[in-house]
Amino acid sequence: MDGDRFATGMTTADWAGERAQAWAAMADRLEAQIEGVSDLLFAAARPMDGERVLDVGCGRGSTTRRASHAVGPTGEVMGLDVAANLIEEAGRLPHDGPPITWMVADAQRAELPPAHFDLVLSRFGVMFFDDATAAFANLAAATAPTGRLCVAVWQRRDRSEILQRPLDVAAEVAGQLGFKLELPPPDSGPCAYGEPSTTTEVLSAAGWSDVRFEPHVLDMYAGGPGPVANAVEIGLTIGALQLALAEAPAEVVDAVRAALTADLTAAHDGVGVKLRGAVGIVTARR
Of 127, 126, 130, which is closest to residue 55 (Cα–Cα)? Predict the structure, then answer.
């Protein structure tokens, strides 16, 4: 396997610090953007009454609270994230279901109860491990025999208009101004699990079996429903475009912002900037 494929330009420590702060500032809009992914995830995961669920990379806990309602008062749910500020906010947000245990930890190294969980769940929360095989092995060790894994991941970036289109616009504009954007390969970083063969190799090496990858393409509102400015701000603050522009001169960033605003206006349908997103729902057995 290409060792560079999982390089993201970000580390677990980044997500425990500045990037978590940036994500939290836009959390409502980001969660609205990927709401449809949650529906796909839960349709495949099918959490049931009385089950014990671990939600990995839970952020502010929207999927964790949904899992809690699904398993009911006889079940058990833990939300785990490396970002302390997101876990703190998750614990403060209203929840009228069964109690949830919140844990600040890196899933790769977290001390979890052995052979305990019936379901390991994640919505885009398994993409930034420093060592993917070690992380999934740790999660497998915490999963009961015959327990299952169900996670949502991105497909290759060039299959997702919502990820690729802003980069294409930015690269063209920056090039016209003499600044070359260094973009990661489309099958790297958060999109490294976008091919079934790659995902199967990692999970099999970590002790999972019966790995399946179900592709989906769905419409998403970039930055959530709202004005074009929401989509532009998300692109310039979080993700590959923000990293690519980190060393760019101010005039390049300003030109990219103007070009994105003009381009994404054409995709606004009266509710928000609607773009296609290609995701995969990965399932496996312990």
Answer: 126
